[in-house]
Amino acid sequence: MLLLSAATLLLILTLSSPIKVGKCPKDCSCDGAKLSAVCVGKNLTEIPTVDETQLLDLRGNHFHYIPALSFPGTVQVVSLHLESCRIREIEGGAFQGMNHLLYLYLSDNNLTLLDPKIFAGIQNLTYLHLEGNQLTQFPGSALSLVPNLFVLHLERNNISKLEPSGLLSSVTPTLRELYLSNNSISVITRGALSSASIGSLYLDSNQLIEVPTSALTGAPNLEELSLSQNPILRVERKAFQPLSQSLKRLYMDQMGMEKISQDALQDLGSVLRILTVRGNRLKELPDLRPLTSLEGVDLRDNPLLCSCALLPLRRWMETVRFEVSATCGNPPDLRGQQVRDADVFTSCLENASMNQKGS
Ligand SMILES: *[C@@H]1O[C@H](CO)[C@@H](O)[C@H](O)[C@H]1NC(C)=O
Ligand SMILES: *[C@@H]1O[C@H](CO)[C@@H](O)[C@H](O)[C@H]1NC(C)=O
Ligand SMILES: *[C@@H]1O[C@H](CO)[C@@H](O)[C@H](O)[C@H]1NC(C)=O
Ligand SMILES: *[C@@H]1O[C@H](CO)[C@@H](O)[C@H](O)[C@H]1NC(C)=O
Ligand SMILES: *[C@@H]1O[C@H](CO)[C@@H](O)[C@H](O)[C@H]1NC(C)=O
Ligand SMILES: *[C@@H]1O[C@H](CO)[C@@H](O)[C@H](O)[C@H]1NC(C)=O
């Protein structure tokens, strides 16, 4: 319901608000019905005065600094594009008056921190793009002015810590999707990611050295979690226990991971649908049989040791309805062979179990 496309929203607003005719600013092109004003890549250094438009696209200009009250007469704007405008600073109250703003794109600028009042007057903002800036902190106090935020993009910044406890629940209580890929996060305080509404969390390409289990307590609706490309070498038992009722998709690719503890995934037995552990250093795998809801698993590019210890995996692969791609890394004469084709298993005892390898 909240995921209406920009076009749908424009249509709704078009049908529900009378259209007045304003004039199109120099350097911009506007459509006849005054639904959009597009002023892309014009080397503008000041925000043009626009009225009665619903989409204002100012991408690729050179604004550098955006003072308070920079958008007079734009009460109808639903979507504002300010990507790649070399913006270093935005003064508090810059967007004041944009009462209908739902989408704000500030991607690929040079923001290092956000004024606590930057979002004053746009309390219904729903989608916020801040990826590709140089933020060093999660902009907690600024976000407290946009309590209806649903999707937040912060990829490619330089955020190193997520704190304090209760960060999400206090400043963005309705946030559903949080994108933090490609930052430098190494610390996440216990409870920082607690939130009743968070559903998708992208933490890939950061500096985490362990699964942030205690940070995820109190995120009972988290369905999707990416930890790919963090230097997490081991996944310990109970690592995902706080997510045992919700986690459907778990991505742990290219982490240099050497070991997944035998009972690390069992807590997700009834919910997990997608698991990817591609491109790690796993020689063995935990027993996947308890994961009864799995619909897809990616085990590729791991140096699996094809011996009788892997027999349960092999048997399991024969019983599941989806294709499982896994190749042997060892012993040397089996390297590169598909696990499903390796004949090493024919001589194994049927009841051999990976459990006997311990965890
Ligand atoms: C913007 O400025 C650059 C460099 O001065 C110039 O090459 C380019 O043609 C300008 N673009 C427009 C649309 O004026
Ligand atoms: C903001 O949202 C609230 C509730 O969702 C609504 O009542 C209000 O009219 C909205 N304000 C504007 C300016 O759209
Ligand atoms: C400003 O941001 C742009 C886009 O992200 C980037 O290419 C550029 O290097 C940045 N400039 C400085 C001085 O950091
Ligand atoms: C990231 O932030 C750290 C300080 O926290 C700083 O030393 C480093 O230069 C920053 N890196 C970039 C690419 O801005
Ligand atoms: C993160 O950075 C890597 C390497 O620079 C890049 O390949 C990847 O597309 C980036 N991901 C995101 C979400 O920005
Ligand atoms: C397999 O089962 C047989 C008989 O039940 C038992 O003797 C044998 O020790 C078991 N082997 C393993 C590896 O558990």
Automatic annotation (TrEMBL):
Residues 302-349 form the LRRCT domain. It is found in: Secreted, Extracellular space, Extracellular matrix. The keyword DNA-binding does not apply. The keyword Manganese does not apply. Gene3D superfamilies: Ribonuclease Inhibitor (3.80.10.10). It comes from the Eukaryota. Pfam families: LRR_1, LRR_8. PROSITE patterns: LRR. InterPro entries: Cys-rich_flank_reg_C, Leu-rich_rpt, Leu-rich_rpt_typical-subtyp, LRR_dom_sf. SMART domains: LRR_BAC, LRR_TYP, LRRCT. Residues 1-18 form the signal peptide. Keywords: Disulfide bond, Extracellular matrix, Glycoprotein, Leucine-rich repeat, Repeat, Secreted, Signal. Its main location: secreted. PANTHER family: IG(IMMUNOGLOBULIN) AND LRR(LEUCINE RICH REPEAT) DOMAINS (PTHR24366), TIR DOMAIN-CONTAINING PROTEIN (PTHR24366:SF161). Belongs to the small leucine-rich proteoglycan (SLRP) family. SLRP class IV subfamily. This is LRRCT domain-containing protein.
